[in-house]
Amino acid sequence: MSWTPLSPDRLTEGLADRLVRRPGIVRVAVDGPECAHAEHLVGEVQEALRARGRPSGHVPARLFWRDASVRLEHGHEDIESYLGWLDADALRREVLVPIGAEGTYLPSLRDPATNRSTREPVRRADAGTVLFVSGEFLLGLGLPFDEVIHLTMSPAARSRHTAADQAWTLPAHERYEAEVDPAALADVVVRLEDPRRPAVRGLS
């Protein structure tokens, strides 16, 4: 499948048009490295959905990271641990399964900065809510998403756009791509070699 170049605005509108056609509650993964700014893209698409009369919600995956005692057991820059920072079982149990079955979800579990429970109450989603989960390493875990958007960057682009103090994370993304092949699992793949000039495949 070939890549289609388009402007950031057209990307936002195209994703919103695709999602608004899905009936009922829709659970959407927006998977990509931190430097791809998945949370920003989610915010833009939420605005476009709002203009179309479709409710939405957003759960950043970092709010479902494991306890720091588990994440950092082998140090602050351990690649093996970093690939497993997400508490996938908690995300499945508290967000993805209940919103699909009952229309309720927990918006956050733990503050990644303080490592304390956020103690947020369970929310009830409006009918037709599009619920986004954004973050790194979301695929290959068997999580029940209805739509998967993967933001891809070449190793060189990831290196250019990753802060120096986060450069240690780069090998984790190369391993994720080699072992999981997230682009093959996604419904829509967005290439962000230059975030000002995205290209997309699978968007219709």
Topology of helices and strands:
Blueprint: E1 4-5, H1 8-20, E2 26-31, H2 38-51, E3 56-60, H3 68-71, H4 79-82, H5 88-101, E4 104-105, E5 123-124, E6 130-135, E7 147-152, H6 155-161, H7 170-180, H8 182-185, E8 188-191, E9 199-201
Tags for this model:
204 residues; alpha/beta; 7-stranded mixed beta sheet; two-stranded antiparallel ribbon
Fold and architecture overview:
The structure is a single chain. Helix 1 (8-20) crosses helix 2. This protein is of the alpha/beta class. The model has no long low-confidence stretch (mean pLDDT 96). The strands form two sheets. It has a seven-stranded mixed β-sheet with strand order 1-9-8-7-2-6-3. A two-stranded antiparallel sheet has the order 4-5. Strand 8 and strand 9 (199-201) form a beta hairpin. Helices cover 35% and strands 18% of the residues.
Strand content: 15-25%
What is the typical, i.e. mean, pLDDT?
96
Helix content: 25-40%
The number of strands is 9
